[in-house]
Amino acid sequence: MIRSPTISLRRRALLALPALLALPARAQSKPIVIATFSILGDLVAQIAGDTVELRVLIGPDQDAHDFQPRPSDAEKLRGAALVVRNGLGLDPWIERLMRGARTVAPIVTTTERLNPLLFNGIADPHAWMDVQRARTYTLNIASGLYPILPSGAEREARAGISTLMAKLARLDDDIRKELAAIPDKRRVLVAPHAALRYFSDAYGVNVVAPASGTAETAPSPLDIATIVRRMKEEKITALFRSPIGNDTLIRTVALEAGVPVKGTIYTDALSPPDGPAGTYEAMMRHNVRLMISAMTET
Q: Which residue in 28, 137, 250, 279 has its CB near the most CB atoms, within 10 A?
């Protein structure tokens, strides 16, 4: 029996249909963008929206300083089109992780073109705590995003960066105005570790933090005694804990100075989305509200 050529062609077309339908989905697949920690992840999301598939290696309430990558983290890098890191010594492990995952994606270093503050000759990585510097972060991220976006998505990203830059300008202005209303001698706070140097430099807040120890290690007894003495002499009432790291300093200082802890400020990571610091802007506004409330307490 001779088969009709028309029927044969129709049958072949039907058989090929699933593959043909899959082609647009592959062509339109979103580029994978890796952010090393939650604050960078939020900035990427604010710019790119749903035009990319965002993967954040260090999530909310997790500390980037002592992060130890796992095999599952290397797997997240598979197929990455862009990697966004902080630099200044905060996330040096990302290049090793990329080599292990055989990922050759371009890297955006968000602190590029920033003049870092130095502490004991070492660059302080917490530059995002100054909102003006966070605007530079935003421009650096955008420069890496534009070349990898699918056709038609660049317009959305340009709108995203315009909105974010305006939002950050308002945020910076609000912080300056709100803190400027606090008398100089009251514009002082105690923090568990030295993550607020950029904030202090930008907004004129005197931050008392231990000279020794880190977010993960306990400060020395001398540090604790020095901070307690300053709190008593200067009548400092703004004492805060951190959601991550070692809490020994704050608990001990609160007890010895007789000053209750006034809340949790976020510096190294965002809170979960339903928390008080689920975005970069929310984190900064939350911190400033707590600071002002504690500084004006009598």
A: 137
Model pLDDT for residues 279-293, shown as the tens digit of each residue:
999 999 999 999 999
Find out whether 295 and 236 touch, Cβ atoms under 8 Å. Answer: no
Three-state DSSP at 35 gives: strand
Domain count, the chain: 2
What integer pLDDT is reported at residue 20 of this predicted model? 34
Confidence of residue 28 (pLDDT cuts 50, 70, 90): low
Residues spanned by the domain of 50: 27-174
Does residue 129 sit within a domain? Answer: yes
21 within a domain of the structure (yes/no): no
Instruction: Please identify, among 155, 174, 193, the residue that sits at the C-terminal boundary of a domain.
Output: 174
Q: Which two tokens stand for residue 23?
A: 């082609």
Instruction: Give the domain-ending residue among 174, 200, 218.
Output: 174
Cα separation, 233 vs 255, in Å, equals 16
Main-chain phi, psi angles of 195, to 5 degrees? -110, 5
Same domain, yes or no: 272 and 151: no
Specify the pTM. Answer: 0.87
Of 260, 253, 263, nearest in space to 288 by CA? 263
Distance of alpha carbon 283 from alpha carbon 266, whole angstroms:
6
